[in-house]
Design a protein that fits this description.
The protein starts with a strand and ends in a 12-residue tail after the last helix. The longest helix has 19 residues. The chain is globular. It is α+β, with helices and mostly antiparallel strands. The protein contains two helices and ten strands. Strands 2-1-9-8-5 form a five-stranded mixed β-sheet, with no helix packed on it. It has a five-stranded antiparallel β-sheet with strand order 4-3-6-7-10, with no helix packed on it.
Length: 142
Amino acid sequence: MKLFQVDIVSLERSVFSGQASFVVIPGEQGDLGILPGHAPLMAELRPGWVRVDQGDPVAEEHFYVSGGAVEVQPERVTILLDFVLAAPEDTGGEEQERQQARENLLRARVSALEYAQMEAALYKALNGLQSGQHPLRRKRIR
């Protein structure tokens, strides 16, 4: 399996640096799926989830980002973030924490269909808020 280098950096610190087989990034025009050997590009990021697949289903990293930029090269992806949430902290018991996270992930795994349904509902709600169609934002027309 081909891998490529992924570096995720926030204003405060380096969040992630490692090898990945697949990365999903929330681009301004939609989600970007990056595989090894991807054509070079630069793009702005919208708020959303970055998913780093390291080739093992339980070795997936997820980060919520508020925005930023991405530079993609065939063998390297660099993600520069304004703000990141749920990034792993470096601690002494890192291996034990990873094992616990793997077990929790396996217990809480949802099917692909359930995930897609939840994601669709979330995007529908967000689009309603952004377009002013939220019930609390409606204006009465006389």
